[in-house]
Design a protein that fits this description.
Keywords: Signal. This is Inter-alpha-trypsin inhibitor heavy chain H4-like Protein. InterPro entries: ITIH, VIT, VWF_A, vWFA_dom_sf. It holds the Pfam family VWA_2. The chain is of the alpha+beta class. The chain folds into three domains: about 300 residues, no CATH class; about 220 residues, von Willebrand factor, type A domain (Rossmann fold), CATH 3.40.50; about 90 residues, no CATH class. About 20% of the residues lie in helices and about 30% in strands. Strand 25, helix 7 and strand 26 form a beta-alpha-beta unit.
């Protein structure tokens, strides 16, 4: 997400925590309690220590305790520096995006240093000062979807040990009729003593407990015997179970191979425990203890509501290629899943919004005009739009579903992105179907896009406001937004969904994108209730959200609060297929405390409300007060770590992206050109990927020679020759906004088609304006330049200012446009030095 790409690199000691969609990030500040002392790190290296010796992880332990669906996880990693010089040891944990860090302790040379949480802005000054100091660090790659990354690096003296302990907490979310505990494991090397334990204690009997095969964390995969966890599952009693995962060295290597990584790099994947509880099929259960209560509501004995699904699908030029292919594949599967009592519509949008007549397999309704007349549109626009009639919602009969698949096959990627008009048409289809007062279909809009608005209204605030105003009254429909790939404005999609009864999800651009779309649809395919309202007659305060527009089978609604006096059971009202219904739950005693669960859920919902609000300050203060009280690291609070002899900090990174992470580096090999970069995770000029004291469902470190079990003893020497350095080219940071404004001044027509982040959408895709030639893999020849019509060379647009006067409008520009990977190019005369800095806009 654009707003997250700020300072993503720090030196010496750094901690990172990423939050999926939020614009405010978790951050860390490190402060020192001791004056700097002269360290052996200043001593010149001797011959024996010319190359780095990677610190050894001799023990790693993960403990997760779950009670009342609330999970608290402790990650412990023990490291020893076997070298004769100080080493940078890094502890890195990938944790679920829904989790909040609540504790971190480092034990160095027998002394513990405990982190604490402070207000974000209070730590900012130290953070900014720390970023500029520039001590060296090396990096390797690590990534995982829907995750946050926490990283801390510190200097360990020769032959000394360090112990890292991280604690994080989360409320497990029920999906597809089960809860999942997901533990990312990525030590970066085989570990002799690797232990994972998950303890489950619930107030109701457990229906099942299982541990599926390990996952990569990056793609949906089928069960595979090669990655079977072989975990030990012990049922302690009807409400309690313990799951143990203790793979030996040989099993770690087998799992590494099964997960697609080098066995020498150790296990790199996600260990998962799945379970569910027996429940009251109607009113749910209320747990009450010490004045706090939580209400779990997941009715099952209810008939599904028939639904009207409006698929609003982006078919702009940037969807061309594999994206449109994967969308078609997913839609064919989703259409097959529609129930016979459902109805549906298919809307595609690019520069033009089209509503398909499924019965005739043709477009019957269009909004907008094609701005690219030089190109042949796959579907010619209708000439007369004055008498158009919106097609009806089509029954999900077998015949109509087959016709709909023919419609899907006809979808073509072309043109710009008119999001506002597309959603307006979708809402019109909802209202048209509701003209029949007896219609009982629950409307659902599934909105998928891979980009930003580039046609029609492009201001996202105005789009959100207009759609929210239009989507009101009795016909109000939830809008579920799907951002496809990195080009989509995830913050915008999150906001528009939150303000319109839905939620947003990200579809990662990978081989399993079609499966991701199908998995999302599965979650919303069976609405059981709408207009669900929890009513409390007791004197209750500090309630979390109590009104929910829709409840889907397999999920769960959770409400928490504080009971001032004697607590009386609440009532739950909702609409079913058979009409309104009222339920009353049972009140029971939980197995553990509920206060931290209440605090966690309250913060989550306040921050969601903040994301959708225009004025964010009141929500920020409320969330901060609770976060500080309960020591949760959130988008509005920062983790402060105290350690000897150093002060540093880092801002956050997205663990779903392949980003360079700090690993071990001998100070004798500190490279002088390492420096902080805006918008980058930091340069990687020397990377030793042997051992990372950390976890993550991540891409593997660099290849290593085979490691024998004897090498994994605590005091075993790891030869520096075992690890080879790698180099990575890092793009130069530019003043992007200045560049965009400058080029818009020189090419005034550009302002109509350029977005705020410098992207322009053309019929064959979206491209970004850049001056950085290191990002371009090749500069091919092109057939015709604007100056003399002869052959030229495709050049980044800012590097060919001599043709600007001839590019009089967008249509002329299209004649001479040429793509340079994902960047905007123009056919420039060959005589021009395309790499000249003086010829470029700077």
């Amino acid at each position: 997400m654009k707003s997250k790409l700020k300072l993503g690199f720090c030196f010496a000691l750094c901690i990172s925590v990423t939050l999926g969609f939020t614009t405010d990030r978790h951050s860390l500040v490190v402060s020192s309690t001791e004056p700097p002392k002269e360290s052996s790190s200043e001593v010149a290296p001797n011959k024996e220590d010319v190359a780095p010796i990677v610190p050894k992880i001799y023990e790693m332990k993960v403990d997760t305790n779950v009670s009342n669906r609330f999970a608290k996880t402790s990650v412990v990693s023990k490291v020893k520096n076997l070298a004769k010089t100080p080493q940078e040891a890094t502890f890195s944990v990938v944790l679920p995006e829904t989790a909040y860090i609540s504790g971190f302790v480092m034990e160095i040379d027998g002394k513990s240093y405990k982190a604490y949480v402070k207000e974000k802005e209070e730590a900012k000054q130290i953070y900014n000062e720390a970023v500029g100091r520039g001590q060296a660090a090396a990096h390797v790659e690590a990534n995982a979807r829907d995750s946050n990354r926490f990283t801390v690096s510190l200097n360990i003296e020769p032959q000394k040990k360090a112990v890292f302990t991280l604690t994080y907490e989360e409320l497990l979310q029920r999906q597809n009729e089960q809860y999942e505990v997901v533990i990312n494991i990525h030590p970066g090397q085989p570990v002799k003593d690797l232990n994972v334990e998950v303890h489950i204690d619930e107030s109701r009997p457990l229906k099942f407990v299982k541990s599926p095969p390990l996952r990569t964390g990056n793609e949906i995969s089928k069960n595979d015997d090669k990655t079977a966890s072989l975990a030990e599952i012990k049922q302690n009693n009807s409400t309690s179970a313990t799951v143990k995962f203790n793979p030996n060295i040989e099993r770690q290597k087998q799992l590494a191979t099964g997960l697609g990584t080098k066995e020498e790099n150790g296990l790199a994947g996600q260990f998962v425990v799945q379970y569910d509880v027996e429940r009251d099929p109607k009113g749910g259960e209320v747990l009450l203890k010490d004045g706090y209560f939580v209400h779990f509501f997941a009715p099952s004995e209810v008939e599904a509501l028939p639904k009207q699904v409006i698929f609003v699908l982006d078919t702009s030029g940037s969807m061309d290629g594999n994206r449109i292919k994967q969308l078609k594949e997913a839609m064919n599967s989703i259409l097959s899943e529609l129930k016979k009592e459902d109805v549906f519509n298919i809307v595609e949008f690019s520069s033009i919004v089209k509503v398909w007549n499924v019965d005739k397999v043709q477009v019957d309704y269009e909004v907008g005009e094609d701005p690219w007349p030089l190109y042949d549109s796959p579907e010619a626009p209708q000439k007369n739009k004055t008498n158009q009639v919106l097609p009806p919602a089509y029954k999900a009969t077998d015949e109509n579903k087959e016709k709909a698949k023919k419609v899907v096959e006809k979808l073509n990627a072309y043109g710009g992105t008119d999001i506002k008009s597309a959603l307006e048409v979708g809402l019109k289809l909802v209202k048209k179907n509701k003209e029949n007062k007896e219609d009982a279909h629950q409307p659902i809009i599934v909105f998928l896009t891979d980009g930003e608005p580039t046609m029609g209204e492009t201001n996202t605030e105005k789009i959100t406001s207009a759609i929210s105003e239009m989507n009101s009254g009795e016909t109000r429909a939830p809008i579920f937004s799907l951002s496809f790939g990195d080009g989509a404005d995830r913050e915008f999609l999150q906001k528009i969904s939150l303000k319109n009864l839905g939620f947003a999800r990200h579809i990662y651009e990978a081989a399993d994108a079609s499966l991701q779309l199908q998995e999302f649809y599965k979650q919303i395919s069976s609405p059981l209730l709408n207009n669900v309202n929890f009513k409390y007659v007791s004197n209750v305060t500090k309630l979390t959200k109590t009104v929910f527009p829709i409840y889907f089978r397999g999920s769960e609604i959770v409400v928490a609060g504080v009971a001032e006096d004697e607590f009386l059971p609440p009532s739950i009202e909702g609409n079913t297929l058979r009409g309104p219904i009222i339920w009353s739950p049972k009140v029971e005693t939980p197995v553990g405390d509920l206060e931290r669960l209440w605090a966690y859920l309250t913060i989550k919902q306040i921050l969601e409300a903040r994301d959708a609000a225009e004025k964010k300050e009141p929500y920020t203060k409320k969330a901060l007060d609770i976060a500080l009280k309960y020591s949760f690291v959130t988008p509005v609070s920062s983790l402060v770590v105290v350690k000897p002899n150093d002060t540093s900090a880092v801002d956050t990174e997205d663990a779903s992206k392949t980003a360079d992470r700090p690993y071990f580096l001998n100070r004798n090999y500190a490279t002088p050109n390492l420096r902080p970069q805006l918008g980058l995770a930091g340069p990687s000029t020397l990377s030793f990927a042997a051992a990372a004291a950390g976890f993550g469902g991540a891409a593997p470190p660099m290849p290593q020679p085979a490691v024998q079990e004897a090498d994994l003893e605590e005091d075993a020497y790891m030869s520096p020759e075992m690890f080879a350095p790698s180099t990575t080219d890092i793009p130069t940071t530019t003043k992007s906004q200045d560049l965009y404004e400058d080029i818009k001044n020189k090419l005034p027509w550009l302002k109509d088609i350029i977005t705020v982040n410098g992207t322009i959408t053309l019929p064959n895709g979206s491209y970004k304006i850049s001056t950085n030639e290191t990002q371009v893999t090749s500069t091919p020849q092109c057939p015709k330049t604007p100056i003399n019509g002869t052959a030229g060379v495709c050049t980044l647009l800012p590097h060919c200012p001599q043709v600007f006067s001839l590019l009089t409008d967008a249509k002329v520009f299209q004649e001479f446009f040429c793509p340079l990977d994902t960047f905007v190019g123009v056919c420039c005369p060959i005589a021009t030095d395309a790499t000249s800095a003086s010829a470029a806009i700077s």
